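Page header: ASSEMBLY MODEL / two components / 511 residues total.
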Amino acid sequence: MTGVRIAGVGLTHFGKHPERTGRDLFAEASERAFADSGVSHDDIESLYYGNFMGELAEHQGHQGPLMAEAAGIRAPATRYESACASSGVAIRQAVKDVRNGEADAILVGGAERMNNLGTAGTTEALAIAADDLYEVRAGITFPGAYALMARAYFEQYGGSKEDLAHIAVKNHDHALPNDHAQFQKEISVEQALDAPMIAEPLGLFDACPITDGASAAVLVSDEYAEEHGLDAPVSITGTGQGGDRMALQGRKHLARSPAAEEAAEEAYAEAGIDAGDVDVAEVHDCFTIAEVLALEALDFYAPGEGIGAARRGETTRDGDCPVNLSGGLKAKGHPVGATGTSQLVEMTRILRGDHPNSDAVPDAKTGVAHNAGGTVASATVHVLEVNE
Amino acid sequence: MSDHGNTGYDEWLDAIAEGNAYYLECGNGHGSLPPRRICPECGEGDLEEIPLPETGTVETYTVVHVPAPSFADDAPYTTAVVDFGPVRLTGVTEDGVEVGTDVSAKISESETTGDRLLRFERR
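Prediction written out in full:
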């Protein structure tokens, strides 16, 4: 089984670009990934592309071939949809194909256009990731669903809104030097606590913004990298995916995310590591409470212990395990279908040493990317390691 | 939106409105909700309608301040996940409930759309 190298990565700016089409966003991200990779467009054998709500935002289905065309490649192209984990599952498919010898060079990525729908329209569109009959018709919004999980967490393990505020403050701080981020703006715990409520106990600063953006990466086999003399110092050494019941009400745990636990277990086993080996992580903090669930699913903390990690300074830039050095979904932004690959992009740059926050982790060799769909009914975890 | 109903779900709402709420149970005792042919827990296909316990307990709740357009006139409103034992249900509920409050399942209407809505009322 061959290894999988990350040959090149690219992102658009994440933010408000309501007039930009999905195809334009993806074209920019893929152009940057190709320029970073040294791989020829002609060598790409497949595109795996993540997008969640293109039908609603752009009246556009069948986006695979459209995006291959936008990226300037002539290859079979498939769109993956797993809500917010759409491009996480796309990466996983690409990793499997390269490992199995099906392909030597694959383009992965994702894009989402959201701001053209406005806040109410986006709230409605995002809700389709929940169970229509049993959740959406009962008034569940996405912030509402995570609020239900936050309250369940507080009940089971303790914790407070102030603990959550520290996560928002941390991720905003991390985004300050990241020019791809939607918010390069410092916030305080007091500001976060005073922000308007969205769904109690979650306020405006507990939620990621509405974001337009795209991400892309070129993945190649070890053999391709060697034959073409590529500078591709980071490999994907583990991939895992987990699943759970669609609706929160069907879950065993309302304050844990077993799908991500399964994904982490599988990815760690493939990479031959455990949580203690991870130097740095990008996790799916669509809401502050989601970062807590992620830290515990990744086994960085026992259930109930992750809530205080940011407050204690352990997951900050200068902590023992820096989490979301990109700014996370919270501050970098969350163009849903682009998020999984954007985490891969950020982590690759952190490990290569060319990320604005690489200086915080100069010796980092092992990173993890955790991407969650819906209320974590879908989850992927990828392990990235610097080649020895 | 389609004008067609949702077979299985609509009848389930009718039953709750008539005071005959039920859930589905497989031969191995796993609870689930319609429309359902196969037990999601074990794959068993023989599902039986069993009366839903009259009282459930609020397991978690939130007050939604920023709604989807279909709940624009309802906001702010409280939604809860309620544990009835064999199954949990999600619905709107009276304001001021707490975790642990005992409630029963009823049917009301959305203030925004007039659509039928699962609603929990204090016991």
